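Here comes just one.
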Amino acid sequence: MSAKNILFLCVANSARSQMAEGIARNLFGDKAVIESAGSIPKGLHPLAIEAMKEIGIDISKQYSKNTDKLPLRFIVKIDYMISLCEEDACPDMASRTAQKLKWVIVDPAIKNDIQSFRDARDKIQASIKEFWAKENLL
C-alpha cells in the first residue's frame, strides 16, 4: 500500500492543524505524508508546542503556512483533507481526489490556557486514531 497524503486544515494553522500534523506524523510514520495549512496563518502557538511536548511529540520545528505554500507534488495527490475548525473562515481547497472530512475542534487559542490546548490535543489524537482504524490504513 502506498503512503496516503493527508492534509489538516484550520484557520490560523497555529494550534489544531499543527497538533494534528505532529500526532499523525508520530503515529503513521512512513505510511502517510502529512501536511497542515490555514486560511489566515498566524505562527505556531507556544501552548500548542507545550501541550504536544507533554505527550512526547516535538512540533517546535513546524511552521504556519497558507494552502498556497503546500508542495505541488503533495496537492495533486491529496487522499484526505481534514478540516478541524468550526469557524466560517475555515479553509477549503478544490480537489478531485481528496475525501473531505470535518472534525469540529474548538480553537484552544480562544481561552488561551494550557488546559484548552490539552483538551484539543486529546480530542484530535482520539479522532486521528479512530479515523485511521476506520479507514484500515494502519
